[in-house]
Amino acid sequence: GAVVSQHPSWVICKSGTSVKIECRSLDFQATTMFWYRQFPKQSLMLMATSNEGSKATYEQGVEKDKFLINHASLTLSTLTVTSAHPEDSSFYICSARDRSSSGRWEQFFGPGTRLTVL
Amino acid sequence: AQKITQTQPGMFVQEKEAVTLDCTYDTSDPSYGLFWYKQPSSGEMIFLIYQGSYDQQNATEGRYSLNFQKARKSANLVISASQLGDSAMYFCAMRVSGNEKLTFGTGTRLTIIP
Question: What are the pLDDT digits (tens) for B95-104?
Fold first, then answer.
């Protein structure tokens, strides 16, 4: 249980275009999902917390107009990188909140999406 | 604010040996949880083990154990009988009570040598 998928797994786009990344909870409903960004050989940095039916909460320094997050259903959150530039090239990972077998709230991570902007 | 420190950027360990990955943390919140994740080259984050701040015993999950020293604010991961498949990045993370956010350390790249 608690499987999270991401699509696409990798994407290459031209500078100035927009890219949408999907995060789905496959076997559970997630009212809360998280979006992280990971540069090569660095740690995961939380970008925003996505709540179903409401606006996302962005971390300090993350441009909300550039990284649009939509959590329209209990199983799907999307991250759209608008007008992408080479510096946006990164590994984007989502997670979804659910209770583990021990009853504890945990984040279950998707496999990640590698974005390369040319 | 919470902070996680992993001071070992990389480690090389002989196969079948035990390895300890260091993690220290800083928080003023008395209730918190500590996590360890494994990230292989494919990129997915694999949950390994969890330790709650009020747990009386150190957590264990198969070959993984957590050496939790609350007074020292350390939560080191111990992998026994290392295997080639253990080669990966390992991240320590923390979450405080009432906050869903995870704060990650910078990670340790573990390489198991045959």
Answer: 998 888 999 9
Nearest by CB to residue B106, choosing from A43, A46, A106, is: A43
Pick from A37, A11, A9: nearest CA to A23: A9
- Across the interface, do A44 and B43 touch by the CB < 8 Å criterion? no
> What would the pLDDT profile of B59-78 be if each residue is shown by its tens digit?
999 999 999 999 999 999 99
Q: Which residues of A touch B42 (CB under 8 A)?
A: 111
- Give the SS3 label for residue A54: coil
Q: Which residues of B86-99 are buried (b: 16+ CB within 10 A; e: fewer)?
A: bbbbbbbbbbbeee
Helix, strand, coil fractions of chain B, as percent rounded to 5: 5, 55, 45
Any B CB within 8 A of A62 CB:
no
d(CA A107, CA B47): 9
Chain A residues in contact with B107 (beta carbon < 8 A):
42-43
Which residues of chain B lie closer than 8 angstroms to A91, CB-CB? 43
Length of chain A: 118
pLDDT at residue B1 in the model:
82
Contact predicate B34/B68, CB 8 Å: yes
Across the interface, which of B33, B44, B107 has its CB nearest the CB of A111? B44
